[in-house]
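[Q] Does anyone have a clean structure-token version of this?
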Amino acid sequence: MATQNNFSAATLSFLLIFVSNAAFVPVDAAADGTKTVEFNVKPGGVVHTFTEGIRDYECSFTYASQGGTNEQWLMSVGLSDDDKLFSCSVWRPQGKSYLFFTQFKAELKGTKIQYANAYSQTAAAGQSDMPLKPEEFSVGDSTVTHRDGKFSAQLSKLTAIGRTGHDEL
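[A] Here you go.
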């Protein structure tokens, strides 16, 4: 049980450091273990996918949304110094999205998800992160997905951390 608690603490520490640093990394900056890129989230009900990766690990964000116009979003991917954790965060830097998401899925390739959360609002302009209700999305071994009939159509941020399985010999 101590191992799970230690891993959880390490995972959350990595997440906090990663997300904090990602907010200050210039778009398109390519540090050895992190990358943040900007992309458009497009309404119109058509399914779109945006993918970014580091080395053998990838994060794909697939979605369909309605209403409004294109929104600028960011995707940050990061690999821990020991190559054991890969993280992906997708968010709207202005805070709350005005689009209505009909579906979403984040997939981490090459990892097994250890932690994930989704938010209807991100911390911006004095606002706090507002997590989705647990029944609105599900977390699998490699995916975080909306739940049909339960998801409220509001998404502004999604974060997932996976264990890579990389072990030193």
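[Q] Thanks! Anything notable?
[A] The radius of gyration is 15 Å.
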